[in-house]
Request: fold
Amino acid sequence: MQVKDKVVVVTGGADGIGAALCRRFAKDGARHVAVVDRNGEGAAAVAKEIGGSAWTVDVSDSAAVAAMIAGVEAAQGRIDLLCCNAGVGDGDADRNNAASSPDAVWARAWGVNVMQHVYAARAALPGMIARGEGYILNTVSAAGLLSQIGSAVYSTTKHAAVGFAESLAITHGDQGIKVSILCPQGVDTAMLRAGGDNQPQNLDGVLTPDQCADAVVAGLAEEKFLILPHPVVLSYMQRKTADYDRWLGGMRRLRAKVLGG
Ligand SMILES: NC(=O)c1ccc[n+]([C@@H]2O[C@H](COP(=O)([O-])OP(=O)(O)OC[C@H]3O[C@@H](n4cnc5c(N)ncnc54)[C@H](O)[C@@H]3O)[C@@H](O)[C@H]2O)c1
Reply:
């Protein structure tokens, strides 16, 4: 897909990777970019800059997501590209205990990192299927393919997001629906900075949000399911699937190195 003349929705568009996507899509000639975020002021600022519309939405709220999708469709006639990009990246309450985070933290991560994708697809698919075309890009993370040391909450919910995207692609591919998952390692955003700079995903280099957007545009053009701004992630996936136990051993060693034992 080329975004020129397309109607695009980007959640988490007020900041970080989402804001970079909004700016890049506008620059590449999108017909309209809807900037969606719970941070209404941030969304409005990005929308004003690019001539798009701003939507203040908590994406973990099913009804609010459905209303936003219906509102964009009513105003623009259709949604060509739906980018579910908003995410939360809480570390575990005790990084030496994978089950330590409180239920509320798990619930928030499920709501944003997984159920957002379900709610948005549920609302957008009928229009896309009726037109026989549509593109869904879900921002996941390399953590959804590999793991995130120090955050079972993030790893688990991002793995679930991969599973849902696979189901979307398998179930709706023959109806003209394209699906991609964006799975970067470190990208220099507020989320990464909040996690500190000793994160394992930083070992392969931190990209700027604009570099991440470049990878998205290239991946959308190729209509590839897997968009990997850090291409090395593919070799890590191959090692994981080739010998799971050996990969787990390697991850334990990496964990000891990163977290200091
Ligand atoms: N930064 C990284 O290193 C990195 C790496 C891999 C994947 N990701 C993923 O990229 C996506 C974007 O993250 P980012 O790094 O740009 O972070 P960010 O914190 O800069 O931006 C996230 C945006 O999502 C919004 N948001 C969060 N919860 C929301 C909710 N409930 N409703 C609506 N909006 C909400 C925030 O307000 C913010 O504007 C996330 O899904 C994240 O998991 C980030």
Notes: The beta strands are 7-11, 32-37, 53-56, 81-84, 134-139, 177-182, 226-227. Residues 7-259 form a domain with the Rossmann fold fold (CATH 3.40.50.720). Residues 143 and 233 are 10 Å apart (CA to CA). Residues 11-12, 14-18, 37-39, 42, 57-60, 85-89, 112, 139, 141, 184, 186-187, 189-192 surround nicotinamide-adenine-dinucleotide (CB under 6 Å).
